[in-house]
Structure formats: structure tokens, C-alpha cells
């Protein structure tokens, strides 16, 4: 029985997939706390799709895919902010217009300049077939994000909770926003290889949303989200070997299952806890 469960570890491509998925899942979980706190869920979705033209242009120009994807993601983020600041369009509409425009442009480029880039790989990911150089890029991205968090994480937390107070004490909030935006874009690019552009938004939202239901303290929320992201990514990659299914799909499905269970069973903020509190409040209001 135990030997059967260890079979995936006998294959190098599975060991690479589980290692890369775990690292990216953990980093996505860490950043998902900021995404949830700042209400950037739509932005993460937009960035994951906006990288497609960057990947196509990088192939045409002979540049690393990650470089093109990151530049495209940051350009899309800047353009969303420009449209929102200089028009009466609401933020959600600006994000929707820009990310669909970038995604459409990417599809056109991939059609006009056929390459060895498979659209299915961009959309759904292919962590089982990840090349060694791509794995190295993903590890470097993860290390860069962790370094940024180690150096400016406390300032980012303060800015995320109260941007006005952060400005009042002299923090450069514009720099913090760009830094956090760059981290989200970089991780979206890295995670795209693992789960694809469609599912990357789940990795950038679900762990943070799940941890938010479990605790009121941001430090514990970050630790919980990181553990959920890394744990589900490792388990999903391992489990996909036996299911012979999409690795990204299994990872995201696990995160959705955990979120659903926590939504119902969370001790203080779950649906059952809320129902119990309402009953107690109603009972306390009745005369003895």
C-alpha cells in the first residue's frame, strides 16, 4: 500500500512537478492575502490573461517567455490604471476592457505567427512537461517575491490596511503599490506554467480567502494561506498521477474543496457558526 503511494516519486518529471507546484503554490498563497485584502481578485485574473501577447512577442523576438509575459502584465496593469484615472469608467469595467483586449491581441499574434507555443499550454498549463530552464525561472521568481516580502512586507501590510496612514508616516505608497503589483504579475507568470492562465486566478485568491475565514490576524492568515497553497499544490500534483487528470485542475479543485469546507465549518466565520450565533442572539432576546 505505502509503496504504491510512493510511485510518483520514482519519476523525475513528477518530482519536478511536485517541487515546482509546491513552491509556486506557497508563494501564490502568500500573495493571495494581499490580493484578498486589497480587492484585487479581478486584477489577478486580468494579469493572468494579459500575459499572452507578451509570450507571443517574446517568441517572435527570440526573448525569454517569462520576460515578455512579465512586461505584458505590467503594461496591462499600467493601462488599466491609466484608463481608470483618466475616464469616468469604473475599475471593474476598465479591467475587463483591458484584459480582454490584451488576451485577444495575444490570440491574434499566436495565429499570425505560428510557433511551438501551444495555446492549450498557455490556457491550461503543463507542469508535468516543464523544461529545466522554465523551472529555474519559476524558482527565481519565487525567490524574488520572497525577498521583496522580507524587505518591504511590513510596509506593504500597513499600506494594504490603511494607505492614508502609510502616506502620513512617510512611506512611498506608490512604490509599494508598484512593488506588490510587480510581485503579483511575476507570480501570475510563474503559476501560468503550472496551472495555466485560466486557473491561475484560483491560486491567487482561494488560499487567502480560505485563511481569511479562519483567523482575524493577518500574520496567521499569511501563514495559513501559504500552507494551504503549498499543501494543495503538492497534493494535487501527486494525486493527478493516480487520477491521470489535469494537474492544474486537480490543484484548483482541492483548493475549492477546502474553501467550501471552511466556508461551512469555520469556527467563527463559517455558515454554521453564523447560524448558531443568530440562534443564540434570538434566544437571548426572548423573555425568560
Task: Describe what is shown at a glance.
The protein has 288 residues and is mainly α. It is 82% helix and 0% strand. The mean pLDDT is 83.
Description:
This protein has helices at 2-5, 12-38, 41-50, 52-61, 65-85, 91-112, 119-124, 132-161, 163-168, 173-214, 218-243, 247-265, 271-284. By secondary structure, the protein is an all-alpha fold. The protein starts with a helix and ends with a helix.
Report mean pLDDT, rounded to a whole number.
Answer: 83
Rg is: 20 Å
Q: What structural category arises from helix and sheet content?
A: mainly alpha
Dominant shape: globular
In percent terms, what proportion of residues is strand?
under 5%
**In total, how many beta strands?**
0
Number of helices: 13
- N→C terminal distance: 59 Å
Proportion of residues in helical segments: over 70%
**Sheet of most strands:** none
How are helices and strands ordered from N to C? HHHHHHHHHHHHH
Key features of this structure:
mainly alpha; single chain; 288 residues; 13 helices; 82% helix
Helix and strand layout, with pairings?
Layout: H1 2-5, H2 12-38, H3 41-50, H4 52-61, H5 65-85, H6 91-112, H7 119-124, H8 132-161, H9 163-168, H10 173-214, H11 218-243, H12 247-265, H13 271-284
